[in-house]
Sequence to fold (88 residues):
Amino acid sequence: MNAKDTVMKKEELTRINNNMPSEAKYGDVFEAIAERQAEISVKAGRRDVVEWIMKYRSETTREFMGFTIMRDKWQAQLKAWGVTNVQT
Fold:
């Protein structure tokens, strides 16, 4: 994944701007955009790491670098991170 793949689309920027309350102070929209962009970037980074782990883990033991995790705990963590559509 490249950085450009994580940049918000114009429609998302417009949605954030339009959803700001009329009494919002100068800079509030920039803060809201920055927070959303950070969420997108963090999620993309997590996804890259998870995909890498899934690629190089042992197919037979679900082990990675000597660590074994129960499938339900791994699925719960992926859900908590918001990482979806990863072959586990």
Residues 3-81 form one domain. The chain has one domain: 3-81. The radius of gyration is 18 Å. The CA atoms of residues 17 and 29 lie 6 Å apart.
